[in-house]
C-alpha cells in the first residue's frame, strides 16, 4: 500500500532522475559539438557515459529497494494477521468478555490503565478489575507475561490453527 509520503518521494525521485538525464543530454550535445577538438571532447563523452551509467545504477537500486520494501510490507501484514489470529484464538479459549477483550488488547498495545480508562470512558478501578480477570483466565501474573505468551507463540512459528504443546 502506497502512502501519500511514498508517492511524493517517488515523484521527487523521478523528477531528480529526469533532471539528471537532461543535464547529461545537454553535456552530451556540448561534447558532440566539440568532437573535432580532440581529448577535451573525448573526456566529456566519457564523463557523460559515466554520469548516465551512475544514474542507471541509482535508478535500478531505487526500484530494487521499492520492491524489497513492498515484500517486507506484505510480510508485516502476514505477521499482523497471524498475531491477530493468535489473539482471537486465546481470547476465545479463555472465554474473555467483550470488555475484557478490549482491555486486554489495549493493554497488549502498551496503553496504561488511565489511558484505557479514558478511552473506554470508565473508571481505572474497572480497568484494573478487568485486567485482573484477563490475567487470571490466561494464567499469567501481569501484562509482560501476557504479551510474552503471544510473542513466544508467533516467534516459534506456530500457525494460528496449531495447539500449544
UniProtKB/TrEMBL annotation:
Entry keyword annotation includes DNA damage: no
Domain of life from the UniProt record: Bacteria
InterPro entries per record: Sig_transdc_resp-reg_C-effctor, Tscrpt_reg_LuxR_C, WH-like_DNA-bd_sf
Gene Ontology terms, MF aspect: DNA binding
Keywords of the record: Membrane, Transmembrane, Transmembrane helix
Keyword Lipid metabolism: no
Span of domain HTH luxR-type: 93-150
GO biological process: regulation of DNA-templated transcription
Gene3D superfamilies, alphabetized: Winged helix-like DNA-binding domain superfamily/Winged helix DNA-binding domain
Transmembrane segments: 12-33, 45-63
The protein's name: HTH luxR-type domain-containing protein
Amino acid at each position: 500500500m502506497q502512502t501519500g509520503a511514498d508517492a511524493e518521494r517517488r515523484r521527487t525521485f523521478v523528477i531528480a532522475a529526469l533532471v539528471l538525464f537532461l543535464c547529461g543530454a545537454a553535456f552530451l550535445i556540448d561534447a558532440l559539438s566539440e568532437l573535432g577538438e580532440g581529448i577535451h571532447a573525448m573526456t566529456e563523452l566519457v564523463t557523460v557515459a559515466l554520469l548516465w551509467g551512475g544514474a542507471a545504477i541509482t535508478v535500478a537500486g531505487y526500484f530494487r529497494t521499492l520492491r524489497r520494501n513492498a515484500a517486507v510490507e506484505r510480510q508485516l501484514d502476514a505477521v499482523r494477521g497471524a498475531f491477530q489470529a493468535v489473539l482471537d484464538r486465546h481470547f476465545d479459549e479463555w472465554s474473555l468478555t467483550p470488555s475484557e477483550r478490549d482491555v486486554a488488547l489495549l493493554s497488549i498495545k502498551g496503553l496504561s490503565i488511565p489511558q484505557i480508562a479514558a478511552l473506554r470512558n470508565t473508571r481505572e478501578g474497572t480497568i484494573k478489575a478487568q485486567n485482573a480477570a484477563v490475567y487470571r483466565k490466561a494464567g499469567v501474573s501481569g501484562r509482560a507475561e501476557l504479551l510474552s505468551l503471544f510473542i513466544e507463540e508467533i516467534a516459534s512459528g506456530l500457525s494460528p490453527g496449531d495447539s500449544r504443546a
